[in-house]
Amino acid sequence: MSELRFAHDAEQSRYTLHRGDDLVSVLDYRDDGCTVALTRAYTVPPFRGHGYAGELVDRAVADLEAHGDRDVLPVCWYVAEWFDAHPDRRGILHRRRQERPAS
Q1: Which of 17, 44, 64, 72 has the fewest Cβ atoms nearer than 10 Å?
Q2: In the Cβ-directed half-sphere of 54, how many Cα atoms lie within 13 Å?
Q3: With the CA atoms of 96, 100, 101 and 103 taken in that order, what torsion angle do they form, in degrees rounded to the nearest 10?
Q4: Sign of the CA dihedral running 70, 76, 82, 83
Q5: pLDDT value at 102 more than 70
Q6: Pairing verdict, β 71-74 and 14-19
Q7: Strands (E), 1-103
């Protein structure tokens, strides 16, 4: 099996994972300067079922953790489930501000 290649395409607001020359998975996002909303994880149909989306989310989260200047908002259901399965990585998740009770 060919080696996996991870890339961040900031111009297209996405992370990608390739196996050899083949694009196997894409993770789209929106970045407002403080929070990165991970909006869609997609694996090309012939490559589904091999764990590529999980590998891509893992590498993207590691990239965001390494930069350390953004929180993550898991908009995509797959990304949210990935964080449920990896509670040790939840430190990067966006935290909503506590609403103050009305006086």
Answers
A1: 44
A2: 10
A3: -160
A4: positive
A5: no
A6: unpaired
A7: 4-9, 14-19, 22-31, 35-43, 71-74
